Amino acid sequence: MTHPFLDLAPLGADRFASIEDRVARLLATEQDVVITQGEALLPLEGAIRGTAGPGTTALNVVTGPYGQTFGNWLRDCGATVYDLSVPYHTAVTADQVEEAFAEHPEIDFVSLVHAEAATGNTNPVAEIGEVVRERGALFYLDAVASVGAEPVLPDAWGVDLCVIGAQKAMGGPAGVSAVSVSERAWARMAANPRAPRRSYLSLLDWKERWIDGGRKALLHAPAQLEMLALEACLERIEEVGLDEVMARHRRAAAATRAGAAALGGGLEPYVHEASEAAPVATTLRAPSGIAASDLVARALETAPALPLAAGGGPLAKEMIRVNHYGADATREAVEASLTALAAALTDHGTDVDVEAARRAVAEAWRR
Ligand SMILES: *Cc1c(COP(=O)(O)O)cnc(C)c1O
């Protein structure tokens, strides 16, 4: 008997190229798209190591833990790095980016995370892109947590390196990822003596041996199962419609915010402004005196499949994450998550109004 995961026909170059074309359509981009054979950290790191070096002056925007990681890679490449950090409960503004350029006109690289699932904020990439383009800097964007939940438009926004993964709002696999690369970014890499070559981190290898060769021969055996899962996930998004997938995430975020507010008990949206809250996941501030990680652990005791998590590292004390993305971008998942949090709060002796939360969720979902 053939096994559905094991006994597969080889995945050829044609099929691989057609999946890349589908990703390009999803991003409405004319740029080259490379599907990288690893989790999104692979192209995130590969794109920085490919373009940055001792001659680089980078503006690294930090709105969450990934921004910190990018700054570390940039420094490791020898770049001069100016970190622009904003509190995790807010977003960066185009004006702040403009001010950074005014202070350091030599900035020629900007790294930004679009939406942060880990902190629940989302940044105004279109507006920031205008500033970056005016200054002629290379624009690097981590859109892993935004793609599928809100528009991601590298060409319209002037993004030179746009990295996506399928494991969040796309509801797809985590083991492959993709990056769109502008002509300017390729030129920067080609001119960078430190860019990885003949390396798993090398995007240039894919440019020279895959793209420039007309996408006829793959560099190595592809991650076949993950590629098939990515193809299936793109197919599903095309069937349902990207707009509908994004609308579900928007509704889930609005419903979670409204439901948490109606629930009471001291639970509050972590990101102050709704306009700066990411559609992919909603973060909540635990009531003072109760550790978020305790609340989440208690909520998950009765319902282990709910998309609830405490914040990472030091945020575990104060932040609750409702990861309403992919298959969990539903009214049911939002309602069940808030109900489980309500039960945990009640156990702590806190008064909450579950019925009001349910009504608020239903109302926000209809809007
Ligand atoms: C989720 C995410 C990634 C990918 O990281 P994993 O934790 O491995 O899924 C990268 N960047 C951002 C902003 C993310 O939210």
Automatic annotation (TrEMBL):
Its cofactor is pyridoxal 5'-phosphate. Pfam families: Aminotran_5. Keywords: Aminotransferase, Pyridoxal phosphate, Transferase. InterPro entries: Aminotrans_V_dom (IPR000192), PyrdxlP-dep_Trfase (IPR015424), PyrdxlP-dep_Trfase_major (IPR015421), PyrdxlP-dep_Trfase_small (IPR015422), SP_NH2Trfase/AEP_transaminase (IPR024169). One of its GO terms (molecular function) is transaminase activity. The keyword Lipid metabolism does not apply. Residues 16-264 form the Aminotransferase class V domain. SUPFAM superfamilies: PLP-dependent transferases. Belongs to the class-V pyridoxal-phosphate-dependent aminotransferase family. This is Pyridoxal-phosphate-dependent aminotransferase family protein.
